[in-house]
Fold each of these.
Amino acid sequence: MATTSRALDPDSGAAAHPRTPWLRLTLHYVEMVLAMFAGMLVFGGLRALLGLTVAFDAHPGAHYLLMATDMAVGMAAWMLLRRHGRACTLEMCAAMYVPAVLVPLVWADVMSGMAFMTAAHVLMMVAMLAVLLRRRREYCH
């Protein structure tokens, strides 16, 4: 008589715990946020050392685009290291730029630079979540 243990059979655990895919999605989201911040610190720091920065007060839109690029590069590096596909990586990086649609509101003095930056970060996180949910099967592994 053969018996199997859930601890020894990796496939049985996935069926027994339906929350596992959501936990994996949550962990992936956290990884992406950490990779964004790492990219912002590393690449933003390098740009600052090289004098390639733009003052936030003078040009909040340009400042945001540079920061989004720093975050996207960090995120792409981490996703490629984790062997995610190019489409997943490009979509997640594109989420960094979604808030750029708000820049004309700053130019028109409808929104302050600080309000833009706050809204941009919230919108960016929502855009990342949308990409994550859209490709949830690919991120659950």
Amino acid sequence: MMKELLAATTTTLVMQTATAQVPASITLYGLMDAGMGYTRLSGAYKDPATGRTLRVSKSRLGALSGGASGPRWGLRGKEDLGDGLHAVFQLESGFDSRNGRSLQGGRLFGRQATVGLLNARWGELRLGRQYNAATRYLLDMLGPAFGGFSLLHTGYGLGMSSASFPRYDNQIFYQTPSMGGIKAAAGYAFSVNDTRNAETGYATANNTRAITAALQYARGPLSAFLGYDQLNASRLLSAAQAAATPRAYIIGASYDFTALKIAVAYNRVADGWFAGRSFRDGGRVGGLAGTPTYAFSKGLRSNSHVIALAVPTGLSGHAFASWQRTDINTSRLTGGDATGQTYSLGYSHNLSKRTDLYALVSHTRNWAFVDGVQALDAYAGLRHRF
């Protein structure tokens, strides 16, 4: 009996020792962002159906979730497999801080759900629901200098890397290591949105698929990137939709002068819309609304230009300003075809390394591309990271 007990104890110790030789780490993290917001829509426009002049005057004051950054919680982990190879995973859930509801279509881990392998020499491979390539490099380019205002309230443009950030289901994604400041990334999604049940099926062509690729240069104060996305339509869509092949091209650059950081970007989208705000019939009074994730429209084209400035204010804050111009060639998808312009001012004040207060005001001319309609957004909130 004593020998059996000794043998069992020895085996347990050996297993514990072997496990200890393969270090692994798991991190729980998150972000809470809540506040108050005010939006006002006003102006007069022509009804495209009747030709009559209509007036709009709507406003809303209420609680706000994610005025600067989307609330989230998540787990990420890393295990050393030896010889420089690591297993990595990330699970990230987005939610509405006003009521605790899951976002991203009600998914449990709608922001990210990935597992992969990482090696400093050959790069990183990840599988699962994750961002497209352009979004990753746009966020890298902006960095913390803009106070975490990742949307920059850029209105309706930057269609594949702003508003509702594009995340693709069923994606395989590879990124090279940095080589003299240069990185490249590419991904393929076998079905970009599994919540569209009508598109999901055993046949590959029943699903809408995506190609994403980007090239980044980041060294010292200079950061720049190029990005490309393409959607291949499900054959289950209507004939008009299936005829479109949405493509998005984006180029951006930023330079940090220490006392001032400037960022510029240009985005062109053809044959559809990537992750734009909802338009006249779907936009909610109160700020950004994140529908649809993507849409198809043969012949639709848009061009967006963005300039943003960020200035540190002492040791505890950042102020930023941005301007965006977006023109579109047809009202077939958007409800209007007027050129939209959005002007924004924001400020974040750090109470600590993890907690800050923020405020933002944004004015849009030709809101939702409807000529004559203006929007005023004013937000203020508290953000805490853990």
Amino acid sequence: MGSLTYRITEEDHGLTMKQFLRNKKGLSRTLLVKLKKEKAIFLNGNFTYLDHPLQAGDIITIVMNEEESENIIPEDITLDIVFEDEDLMVLNKTYGQCVHPTLLHPSGTLANGVVKYWQDQGFNRKFRAVNRLDKDTTGLLIVAKNQFAHQQLAIVQRKHLIIRYYESVVHGHLDRDTGTISAPIARKGESIVEREVREDGQEAVTHFEVLKRFARATYIKLKLETGRTHQIRVHMSHIGHPLMGDDMYGGSREEMGRQALHARYLSFPHPRTGEELSFEAGLPKDMKDLLDKLAKGE
């Protein structure tokens, strides 16, 4: 169980509790209703209601109660935890692992491992992934540890303040050192999984930069402005350079058993303090091996 604490300044004198928490701190209406129902909002140590007027010097304390995980079975799975505090975790996800249980993959997911990790520490929490990675994409991912952090990070995400850089190896030679792909993405036909570039799709923008060219492939860095399902994979295939190992979108698995895509770098403001956090995760072994092989011309 954690808590949030705010001290009221002269600037906020006269606001009601609701006005301060909604307009100044960005707490959602849903979260405020939940906190009110749980009697989790305190003013100077005493429970209070949302219409209570505030005075300079007042101390607001919000108690964030534990929540039961939503039927996710705890499993003992090795986690690569890059960072953790009371509000969030940043993990380096391996390939072949879904983020959240699905009908096809009900166990062995990152969520199963995180719930077990929390339970071993004596906590019950809902699993809330802030960003998602495909099952076979590796790299950095944020998990919020409470509803407040999740909501604040969602706001940051909508403002495009979560900066993500990926690295990939694609087939062929890109004709430019840098470029931007702006092409809307939609679900392909009746497929549950596959996506395609289509005029009536959702806006999708990907920036790329060439890091190194090989005889038959290119090592690139990518930045997302939007976060559509399979965005990088669809966009690179769309311009004729599918990811190596990505047979769903035209790539070959001859030299790589999965799409060669890694979420390398991540930065964002902390949901509680606003401090800018940044993290980097080195390439996994299979991508390093692929680059070594390409460099030797094999």
